[in-house]
Design brief:
Length: about 200
C-alpha cells in the first residue's frame, strides 16, 4: 500500500498548493468546498483497503488532513490540530477508515453492495451450529479464521466482520444507511475527541 499512499499524498499536497495560491480571492466556505472536493475525497477514496496498514502510512495520510485544516483556518504549522479537526467535524484517519468499512459492511448486510462483497460475509444466525446461541438473534457476523495475521486479518470478510461486531447493536440495527452513517459518525467522533 506504500505506493498507493505515496501517490495519494503527493496528489493531495499538489491540490493544497493550488488552493493556497488562490485562497485570498475566495471566502472560507469556498476554500472548504475546494478542499473537500480536491483533497478529502482523494484521502477517502478506497479507504477500506487501508485497514491494517502501518501507522507510518496512516500518519502520512493524516498529515494531508492536517495541512488541509490549517489551510482552511489560516493556522500556523505550530498550532494544535485537534481543535481544527473538531471544528470541521473531520475524523482522524483510522476512524475514517473504520467509517468507510462499516458503511460498506452495512450495505453488504442489507443487500445494496456489490454481490461479490456481500457473499463474503455471513451472519451468525445463518452459520451452522449457532442457531441456539445468544449471538444467533443479533446482527453480528461470522469472523473467518485466518492463517496469517498480517495479510489474512486485512481481508475484507475478516476486517469487516470484526469491525462490525464491535459496533453497538443500536448502531448496527439502524433502519437506513443515512441513519447508520449519522450514528456511526457520532460514535467515532466521540471516540476520536473524547467527548470534547
Amino acid at each position: 500500500m506504500k505506493e498507493h499512499v505515496t501517490a495519494t499524498v503527493r496528489s493531495c499536497f499538489a491540490a493544497i498548493r493550488q488552493i493556497r495560491s488562490v485562497r485570498r480571492a475566495l471566502p472560507q466556505h469556498a476554500d472548504l468546498t475546494l478542499v473537500r472536493a480536491l483533497v478529502v475525497s482523494k484521502v477517502d477514496h478506497c479507504a477500506t483497503v487501508l485497514v491494517g496498514v502501518s501507522g507510518r502510512l496512516l500518519d502520512r495520510l493524516q498529515s494531508v488532513l492536517n495541512a488541509a485544516a490549517r489551510l482552511i483556518f489560516s493556522a500556523r504549522r505550530s498550532d494544535h490540530i485537534s481543535p481544527l479537526l473538531y471544528d470541521l467535524h473531520w475524523l482522524w484517519i483510522p476512524e475514517r477508515i473504520k467509517f468507510r468499512l462499516c458503511s460498506l459492511t452495512f450495505r453488504c448486510v442489507h443487500g445494496t453492495a456489490p454481490s461479490y462483497l456481500a457473499v463474503s460475509l455471513r451472519r451468525t444466525v445463518i452459520a451452522e451450529g449457532r442457531r441456539h446461541l445468544r449471538s444467533s438473534v443479533t446482527t453480528s457476523l461470522v469472523v473467518p479464521s485466518t492463517r496469517r495475521s498480517t495479510l489474512g486479518d486485512r481481508a475484507f470478510p475478516v476486517a469487516a466482520a470484526r469491525m462490525w461486531n464491535k459496533l453497538p447493536a443500536s448502531v448496527r440495527n439502524a433502519p437506513s444507511l443515512l441513519t447508520f452513517s449519522r450514528e456511526l459518525k457520532i460514535l467515532l467522533f466521540r471516540r476520536s475527541f473524547n467527548g470534547n
